[in-house]
Amino acid sequence: MLPRVVVIFTFGQRRQHVERARWRGRRRGEWVKRSVGKKPGSALVVAREARSLSFVQAVRLRSPGGWADLVIEEEERPEPAETDVLIEVHAAALTRDELNWPVDRLPAIPSYEVSGIIAEVGAAVTGFEIGDGAYGLTGFERDGVAAEFAAIPADRLAHKPVSLSHVEASSLPLAGLSAMQGLFDHGRLEPGQRVLIHGGAGGVGSFAVQLAKVRGAHVIASAAGSRVSAAGELGSDEVIDHQEHDFTEVDPVDLVFDTVGGPRLARSPAVVRPGGRIVSVAERPPMGFGSEEGVESTFFIVEPNAHQLDELTRLADEGRLRVLVDSTFSLDRVKEAFQRLQSGNAVGKVVLTIHDD
Ligand SMILES: NC(=O)c1ccc[n+]([C@@H]2O[C@H](COP(=O)([O-])OP(=O)(O)OC[C@H]3O[C@@H](n4cnc5c(N)ncnc54)[C@H](OP(=O)(O)O)[C@@H]3O)[C@@H](O)[C@H]2O)c1
Fold first, then answer.
1. Residue 281: which domain range?
2. Is 347 near ligand 1, meaning CB less than 6 Å away?
């Protein structure tokens, strides 16, 4: 008698296994049919339909800055290059000011954070298979992901955290990487240091609060309105309602991480100890900013980083990183989604849902 082989999966491995089983296929078109793929709407059927599609829906920004100029267009399904994957976009997260970014390559597809299922794999890609759940920050130099399908360089992606939905996973890359790079690469935050995070319940700030706590820092968040309680629930040691109190009255901090800009950034040198740092992701400080107080200041643009994305995946799957999702909108409601972001009332990320989870 043959020995019985028992395969034991952890919960996370089982989810990945099921996702893969649904989608198992050969590269570029030769699909291997599996029973789980037969149901209408199943991942395999969706993928086959995708292959038969010549055109997909995508959001296009026609002029910088204005959500009023967003249109939904039918366009040719993108073809992945050798180092790309084609991803069936399930969720695409938005950033409040992002419609100002692609000024030199309009009309552009917005949204640079994606979570979805891999539908096709370029010949030179390793590490991903058709059917894998993947998420990541795409580059700002090319079209974004507010579309039914997107071709993305595989090195911009990581396997999706199994404990998160696509909506939650899409909310993580741009904001989570900005927080990680701002606090640690640029801010050099060490355990035991004090950090003040402006916008502590915003897209970037909500991850910054949690990552700084994981690093063992003392975290002070500034926030307003319903974001005050949210910043506390994320684990901030202190929260300052900046509409009620002057944030410069807190004891000196080693680092200010600014996600807001304007007067809050301008007044920040007053709260940093000499030799401390200010890092902004929202606004470039003027030349010499903070030098009178002996404070170093930096602005940076977030960079895709698959290794750091893996670290965010690990923290999310260990339950140490919560994702604040404010609201979700279907692709055809993209204008409402940007209006919500710009209303000043959002708590966390606003996400477009494009294919069902
Ligand atoms: N340089 C880069 O690579 C990079 C990367 C990511 C994001 N960004 C930029 O960094 C900033 C933060 O991004 P985010 O996704 O965290 O933004 P967000 O969540 O929309 O806003 C961050 C904070 O700004 C305040 N705020 C919210 N809505 C506002 C509004 N309508 N007008 C003015 N202030 C408002 C809130 O802080 P309070 O509750 O404290 O008032 C909020 O928590 C944005 O400007 C974004 O474009 C830059």
1. 175-299
2. no
